[in-house]
Amino acid sequence: MYSFEIETPTSLADALSALGQDEAQALGGGQTLIPSLKARLASPAVLVSLAKIDEIKGITAGDGTVTIGGGTTHAAVAAGVAGSYPALAALAGNIGDPAVRNRGTIGGSLANNDPAACYPAAVLASGATIVTNTREIAADDYFQGMFTTALEEGEIVTAVTFPIPEKAAYLKFEQPASRFALVGVFVAKYPDGVRVAVTGASESGVFRWTEAEAALSADFSVAALDGLSLPAEGMMGDLHGSGAYRAHLVAVMTKRAVTAAG
Amino acid sequence: MTKVTMTVNGKAVSKEVSGNTLMTEFLRDELRLTGTHVGCDTSQCGACVIHVDGKNVKACTMFAAEAHGAEVTTIEGMANADGSLSVLQQAFQDHHGLQCGFCTPGMVMTAAKLLEENPKPSEHEIRDYLEGNICRCTGYHNIVKAILAASGQDVSGIAAE
């Protein structure tokens, strides 16, 4: 690692002022950023840890929604929304491994927007709202391609508000070594329609499969998806699977998600 | 440099460290607690698992400064007060839950948390919880058996090692 100073503020205001320094970078749970620092893929002068800021942690239930603080760990989400949003709890409880889930945070995951991360699929399929220190961003505007989001320099994800669906499920086809999603599909059924978001597959990061959404909105059944497929163009291809394979998996996992959602 | 103060295995410690000092480096190089192992150093293998404020975490993927003020337990703090092995450690010995032993500290630290959260885990639950702990000797079978035994469950039905 290159050398840097580290700060551990306990309030959002202090964190934002620390982030105003030259070459400052926010550190969430560090489960992606620390390995990146070790690989010298990032070289901040100051790292501002968000882990001790209680005001951006925790889960609050609203009217048909659940709001999760950006600094809430995956383990806390898995336990905290098990009753209100079971599909989201199951997703959070299957990220990485138990030790990673005790450090990694929802805000960190969303700020990083790894193309194979799980949370972006839940956020996009739920039409969630990303709350930052300055504004609210709709999920449809937030994800802007691999590792790219609508966040500005120094902007922090303070919370995410999820409308709770009638039915939902997330199905992840795990890359057997890393356990990241080779393809992950989140299906969420709301009174005004079904949303389907896919992670792990596309070169442009998480995306909505609008054809499947239309079919499922008309008839929420596996049969409604018969004959639907995605083109291999634009899908990631690597030693774990070709673009065509991933495109095929998207359709398979979508069907499984519909079955699981019941 | 940053001053960090924390409690490690019940003892208060305080050191000046650079910002990029990892918990593994803090424990091993500053405190000379070398039971916390560094296998992959990329948070895959789990040989470095410790407990920070009651949560199992990978010490290679956390900075010492982030543990400022925390209660930390490492493998050196897992034995009974009189120095005898804990039930879990004894089970690892009795069931030969190790081959080369490199992954053992992390396995014990992870298993201890599992048994706290789930006192009678099934074999499947144990294997699932050990997802982030890799034994490169592939000696998982006896590790799982040791954890089952430590939870007070009958292991006679588990296939012979």
Write the layout of secondary structure elements.
The complex is a heterodimer of chains A (262) and B (161).
Chain A: E1 5-7, H1 12-19, E2 24-27, H2 33-38, E3 46-49, E4 59-61, E5 65-69, H3 74-80, H4 86-92, H5 98-101, H6 106-112, H7 119-125, E6 129-132, E7 136-138, H8 139-142, E8 157-163, E9 167-174, E10 181-190, E11 193-199, E12 207-208, H9 210-218, H10 243-261
Parallel strand pairs in A: 1-3, 2-3
Antiparallel strand pairs in A: 4-5, 5-8, 6-7, 6-8, 9-10, 10-11, 11-12
Chain B: E1 2-8, E2 11-17, H1 23-30, E3 49-52, E4 55-58, E5 71-73, H2 87-94, H3 104-117, H4 123-129, H5 140-150
Parallel strand pairs in B: 1-5
Antiparallel strand pairs in B: 1-2, 3-4, 3-5
Helix pairs in contact in B: 2-5
Straight-line N-to-C gap of chain B: 50 Å
Number of helices of chain B: 5
Widest sheet of chain B: strand order?
2-1-5-3-4
CATH topology of the largest domain in chain B: Ubiquitin-like (UB roll)
Pick out the low-confidence regions of chain B: none
**Topology, number of strands of chain B:** 5
Question: Can you walk me through this structure?
Answer:
The complex is a heterodimer of chains A (262) and B (161). Chain A has 262 residues and is of the alpha+beta class. Chain A has three domains: 5-49, Uridine Diphospho-n-acetylenolpyruvylglucosamine Reductase, domain 2, CATH 3.30.43.10; 57-163, Uridine Diphospho-n-acetylenolpyruvylglucosamine Reductase, domain 3; 167-261, Enolase-like, domain 1, CATH 3.30.390. Chain A is 30% helix and 23% strand. Chain A contains ten helices and twelve strands. Chain A has helices at residues 12-19, 33-38, 74-80, 86-92, 98-101, 106-112, 119-125, 139-142, 210-218, 243-261; strands at 5-7, 24-27, 46-49, 59-61, 65-69, 129-132, 136-138, 157-163, 167-174, 181-190, 193-199, 207-208. In chain A, the strands form three sheets. Chain A has a five-stranded antiparallel sheet. In chain A, strand 10 and strand 11 form a beta hairpin. In chain A, helix 3 runs antiparallel to helix 4. Chain B has 161 residues and is of the alpha+beta class. Chain B has two domains: 2-76, Beta-grasp domain (Ubiquitin-like (UB roll), Roll); 87-150, [2Fe-2S]-binding domain (DNA polymerase, domain 1, Orthogonal Bundle), CATH 1.10.150. Chain B contains five helices and five strands; from the N terminus they run ββαβββαααα. In chain B, helix 2 (87-94) packs across helix 5 (140-150). The longest helix of chain B is centred in the C-terminal third of the chain and has 14 residues, at 104-117. Chain B is elongated, with a radius of gyration of 16 Å. Chain B starts with a strand and ends in an 11-residue tail after the last helix. Classes of the chains: A alpha+beta (262), B alpha+beta (161). The A-B interface holds A 1-6, 8, 27, 30-31, 34-35, 37-38, 46-47, 49, 51-52, 75, 96-100, 102-103, 179 and B 2, 18-20, 22, 41-43, 46, 49, 55-58, 61-63, 65-66, 68, 110, 113-114, 129, 131-133.
